[in-house]
Amino acid sequence: MKFLSIAASLAVATLSVVSALPVRSSIFEKRDVCPADVLSCTSASSGVDTCCLPDMGLILLVQQWYNGLGPADEFTMHGLWPDTCSGGQGPSSGCDAARVYNDIDSRLQNYPSTPAGFMDDMNTYWSSYNGDNNVFWSHEWSKHGTCVSTLAPSCSANYVQDQDVYNYFSKALALRSQYNLYNALAAKNILPGSNPNVADMHTAIKAAFGVDAQINCLSGVLSEIWIFFRVQNGDQYVPAAPLTTGSCKGAISYPVKSGSVTPPTPPTSTTKTSTTAASASGTSPAGSIPTGKQSGSCSTNGATVCVSPGSSQYYSKCNQGTWILNQCKSGLSCYSDTQTTTHCA
After folding, report:
1. Known catalytic residue: 343?
2. What global pTM score does this model have?
3. Is 202 a catalytic residue?
């Protein structure tokens, strides 16, 4: 009996020691056992769990300079792209077929933690040249977002549907704001409408961010600037030297974009989200009410115009001096109230 008692005590003690060890299970946050301050794409990152560091550990923040997109004094987003450490791209179809979506706009709108104003920022700073932001965002998420392994639902203990989608886009917008290319260039007096030497642009970017960037041109005209990052501690993005300096050579064109530089009034929203039923006719009120997709600069901040009143969910909104395309929630259509206000019903 004494022998059995001792054996039982040893078993309990052993179980206590085992239970005190880090457990790698889906019911725990995997990042709780991640190594601290280890950078992706370094010798120390070999073998680290892909919930701790991205499997494709070189991340590119791709900003574009495209006339008609965003304010005249801001670069806009093309994407946040995970690459291999040698610069190789992921699969063209993305990295997780189960999370390839074509409705990113509605997913972001309906995600419970999406803050007020976030969709306005998306439409302003991540807009598509063809006017269909949802298609653009869905492509970027499906091809690139699904390849950020640290965002995988299995990496979170308390995953909420579309948490990964929101985290991808919110991180990208935060990086765009933090690494503001327009301000970096303007600090060295490099402004739109000039023909700077690309060497001076590299110098300005390095002075602002501590690292150089890849600067790309199309036929001698500035098109995109890529900033490279490595990752540590799950979601801390550390700027890194680019693999190449880009396609721009010598003096290039840095053209002026359409749009306002300074908003005439503080941003406000006059878009109504009334649940009042639309008129039976489903048409706009009488009078000279503008319709159609608006583009270029605008003077009444917060003004909204339905693209096709009563038959389309899309509307244009004046945001910081520039028209951007927005849309009502799924199942609702835009209806005109006055020349500058609308509601979704």
Report:
1. no
2. 0.71
3. no
